[in-house]
Design goal:
two-stranded antiparallel ribbon, globular, about 60 residues
């Protein structure tokens, strides 16, 4: 699934990636992401891998 994640409080891409991975690593980790115009809630327990690409994270 190709989704995008953005945090307006974080300007550094590496910090954003670290924050996303640390959130998903928690047992109760949840991210609110976007797939086109749809809101997608991503639960850490369902994520097996994260690939960061120029277009955004590919999960």
């Amino acid at each position: 699934m190709d989704i995008t994640y953005d945090d307006p409080d974080v300007t550094d891409e590496e910090t954003l990636i670290d924050r996303m991975i640390s959130t998903l690593a928690q047992d109760s980790g949840v991210l609110h992401t976007r797939h086109a115009d749809r809101l997608v809630v991503l639960f850490g327990r369902g994520v097996a891998a994260v690939e960061v690409a120029p277009r955004g994270a590919v999960i």
